[in-house]
Amino acid sequence: MRIKAFIVHLVTLVIFISYPNAHADTDSLLKQYSKQGASNPDADQGRRMWQKTYAGDGQFTQRSCVSCHTKDLVRPGEHVKTGKTIKPLAPSVNPLRLSDDRKVEKWFLRNCKWTLGRECSVQEKADFLAYIESK
Amino acid sequence: MKATLAISAIVMTVGIVSLPVVFSDNDGNWRDDEQHSSDVANVSHPVYREECGSCHMAYPPGLLPAASWERMMNGLEDHFGDNAELDKQRHNEVSEFLTANSADKSNYRRSRKFMKDIDPDKATMRITELPYFRHEHDEIPSRIFKGNEKLSSISQCNTCHKKAEQGSFNEDDINIPGYGQWDD
Fold first, then answer.
1. Is the pTM of this model over 0.80?
2. Is the dihedral of CA A22, A27, A28, A30 positive or negative?
3. ipTM of the complex
4. A110:B84 CB<8 A
């Protein structure tokens, strides 16, 4: 009997861990950005920055988030250089998106540097996050 | 009693399932009579797969010597034009995996071929520049590449080598988009 109860607990725990609540996780990251000086995450501003084209160099003189992720976040994207498929960013169709703070920060670092040529400010990250989360 | 039986059943199942792993030759010993697993070691490291495999195919480490991987890992901020920075812990994990399974430390049949005629300490970071790679791809007629959008870059092995990420580059596993199977 004890074993049965243990298994039920174990299964519940595994399910709980496997399906993290995306919103709660974004909240914690947004709070962190707010502490660092960001105010009122603005999804509209996030969308404008998302679709903006930035100057680059080398093979890609024009760069944008859209280059890889497209304008439609519920659809898959494609790495502009390698052609590898990128799963949709919208949490509505891909619940694992935005559920891991470390990954969000990692991609902000890599992709802001490539696309904008510099790290994003906390305000920019908050706006991007609000935009992606709304999709 | 029931619990003991259940545990025994689990132990037995795990044992049977793992038999092919125990008796396969994926432990790094090369055997010419084995077609697939003797190619190059496959890409099994989860952190490597996640960190490097999200933007491109996770290249088997046995395609380049350790010195090439070290150079690559020391320049991730400009990784062939892209930014692929890693935090320190993950950087070390990936570096260790690549070095330990690099072509010059591997006994796999094709890794040895990739090491032919190169000075491992001065090797390029581009697999496509290695003599063995060039030799193997020289015979492809240029008409196959001409105007073929899916073949815009020769760096994406898995466009044609369907089992590249499993470490197999055998001819049987080649399928060129717009052309079909390759036969020498």
1. no
2. positive
3. 0.77
4. yes
Helices (H) and strands (E) in chain A, counts: 6, 4
Position B27 scores a pLDDT of 36
Q: How many CB pairs under 8 A join A and B?
A: 43
Query: Distance between CA atoms of B142 and A19, rounded to whole angstroms?
Result: 49
Q: Which chain B residues contact residue A113 at CB under 8 A?
A: 77, 83, 85
Name the E strands within chain A: 54-57, 60-63, 77-78, 85-86
Size (chain A), residues: 135
* Residues of chain B under the 50 pLDDT cut: 17-36
Angle at B150 between CA B63 and CA B80, to 5 degrees: 45
Residue closest to B132 by CA, chosen among B153, B120, B115: B115
Q: By CA distance, what is B90's nearest residue in A?
A: A106
**Tokens 């908050």, located at residue:** A126
Q: What local confidence, expressed as pLDDT, does residue B21 receive?
A: 41
Tokens describing residue A71 = 């304008």
Q: Which residue has the tokens 């390759």?
A: B182
- Residue A103 tokens read as 């990954």
Question: For residue B57, what is the nearest residue in chain A, using CA coordinates?
Answer: A84
**Residue B17 touches chain A, beta carbons under 8 Å:** no
Per the listing, tokens 């052609």 go with A83
Of B54, B85, B156, the CB nearest to A83: B156
